[in-house]
Amino acid sequence: MVLAAATLFGVNGAVSKVALASGVSSLRLSEARSGGACVGLALLALLREPASLRLRPREWRGIALFGVAGVALVQLFYFLAIHRLAIGIALLIQFLGSLLVAIWARTVGREHVRRRIWAALGLSLTGLALMVQLWGGGNVNGLGVAFALASAVTYAAYLLLAERHVSTRDPISLLAWGFLFATVFWTVVQPWWSFPSTAVGRTVPLEGHLASLHLPVWALVLWVVVLGTIVPFTLIVGALRHISATRVGITAMFEPVVATTVAWLWLQESLTPVQLVGAAVVLSGIALAQTAR
Q1: What percent of the chain has pLDDT over 90?
Q2: Per-domain residue ranges for the chain?
Q3: What percentage of the chain's residues is helix, strand, coil (to nearest 5)?
Q4: In this structure, what DSSP letter does residue 114 have?
């Protein structure tokens, strides 16, 4: 489930990059993503089991925190980061959140984190560094790095809060409420009546190898909502019923492998032998983490 979600998230990075290049701001794309996912998930919950949407009084504070910190802000900081950094570097920094989850589990949660988990984290982060060729520097924007670090913290919060609440609530209803609180947050920050509706009606080229093809911006946003949000978020939260947040975080590091490959195939970004070695190292780390029962 996590590998499938990571694949969809990896493809979504390229789709989001094209959408952002069309003139839609990071904040507006985050708002549209949250609002669309909220509607879609709520409809799924109503069709599946309407009673699952009941929110108990003792739940609302925790789920509100999950919606704002773990859903709204992680999207915002990621979009702000990839707008200023290469997708690979932004993802490398964001996935430091997996390390934060393991540290939290060991220190605050007083859980026994096996040595191979730390080894798996080391392998995966080393592989990510190879994939983005971090030593080369590239266009490293200070503000972009700050946003990516913020996304790492909120990503860790998302995994830990989801792990806590999924024990008492099914993934779809949890995410429906989470995205509702995220949508309320965005509505306060930037009201829907000021949404640039004319921007999503434009038709734009898909860039790179697909530059000859054109799609309306609303179609790109729809992809981001359905295949870039509803499906992968549900898979990630559902997986937390079967494996720990630490292992979910490590396995999700497959996303940069997919994102780099898609950027090479679609956006004509380079893919060097070193990056291929990095992808193999990441996969080795993921495989090692799965042996830590």
Answers
A1: 24
A2: 2-290
A3: 75, 0, 20
A4: -
Exposure class string for 94-132: b at 16+ Cβ within 10 A, else e: bbbbbbbbbbbbeeeeeeebeeebbebbebbbebbbbbb
Residues 53, 51: Cα–Cα separation, whole Å: 5
Q: Report residue 55 CA to chain centroid gap.
A: 25
Structure pTM? 0.80
Residues 215-264 pLDDT 10s: 898 999 999 999 999 999 999 999 988 988 888 888 888 888 888 788 88
Write b or e for each residue in 234-271: b if 16 or more Cβ atoms lie within 10 A of its Cβ, otherwise e. Answer: bbbbbbbeebbbbbbbbbbbbbbbbbbbbbbebbebee
Q: Kindly calculate the radius of gyration of the chain based on its CA atoms and give it in whole angstroms.
A: 18
Residue 192, classed as helix, strand or coil, is helix
Neighbours of 145 (CB within 10 A): 16
Which token pair is 209? 């190898």
Report which listed range, 46-50, 127-131, 284-288, is most confident: 46-50
188-212 burial code (b ≥16 CB/10 A, e <16): eeeeeeeeeeebbeeebebbbebee
Element containing residue 216 per DSSP (H, E): strand 214-216
